[in-house]
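Mods, move this if it's the wrong board.
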Amino acid sequence: MLKAHLPRQISLAIVTETWPPEVNGVSHTIKHLVDGLRQCDQYTIQLVRPRQQTDGDPASEDNFQELFTRGATLPFYKEVRIGLPHFFKLRNAWKKNRPDVVQLVTEGPLGYSAMWVAKSLNIPLISDFHTNFDQYSQYYNLRFAFKVASVYLRHFHNATRQTLVPTTELAAQLANTGYKNLAIIERGIEADLFHPAKRSEALREKLGVKPKQLLVTLVTRLAQEKNIDLAFKAFREIQKEVPDAHFMLVGDGPERERLEAANPDCSFAGMQRGEDLAAHYASGDLFLYPSTSETFGNVIIEAMASGLPVVTYDYAAAHKYIQSAHNGLTVPLHDEAAFISLSASAACETNLRNTLGKEARKTAQTLSWNNVVDRLDIIIKQLITEVRHETPTSAKRPRNTRLPTV
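Not the wrong board. Structure tokens:
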């Protein structure tokens, strides 16, 4: 019945200010969703994004086209790029080839201009909520600026027909602050890539770590909002119990130089991708994740898929997927003393870590990007059907703000 009201080919324009090879949860997620939808014969995708230094000509295939725009780096955070606004360029492109739906992945100037173009052309919009700016404020002394940003983000997302969030927990938090029309779309995992079998004794030997020596790991962007200093506090407490323990950090960012200078006995592996990243995960014995600013936290389920026991706060991905003392270890959000204490306890319990790691792997194996893509497909098709049945009068009525049942 639903298919009878749908176009034979769905044209989806996706607007994002981040895309691989940039390494972050947003680019990782949207790449998987784009790849998944491209495998569905029913979709034609136009990807609108800032041109990167590594880019050649924009892709132009039967079901996938790229539209490059100009971008810029943030002066106080050079690792983050934003897209510049392109109202007229997008308006001309979408008047010529009108999308059925526009998906706004990021909320920067490019996303905002795309929002206004779509609304001016009466193209239905969906948006993704990926970044918890409110939590960032405590690390950058920009509380006033982030209060303004919170108002802007609520305005931005409420201008779309539906805002996609990764957990019911986050949806409830946003709903309590005035966000409307929220839908849940979870995250998946590449369980064949992130796998305990990727453990590398050669990598551990390169780090100076012996086979039975404890290797504590953290994979993250090395930035203030990731609360990395707490991970070092926990590791120093671990060393009191396990003196030969070693700490390896994987990732890059503005804090790397400071952290390396302050912790010369720890290993900084830099940015890793693909099989190399999988080997760095699987070669560890205990994963500490102290961030308090996540909307989800992809690295948590990547660590779990790699067979690692994870110590983290009980929110976002951990709240959804970790049962503490069964397949990982969690503590109440912001309880630093508990985080440090539990990390030290886990470091002393080899059998416990092994059990938690095995159960973590079982949990991660149940997650699939195919399921996530299927969920997005349903949301898009429901929106198209809904829009086609709206009359000019009904389109102006207030929309139901109740959270959808998943």
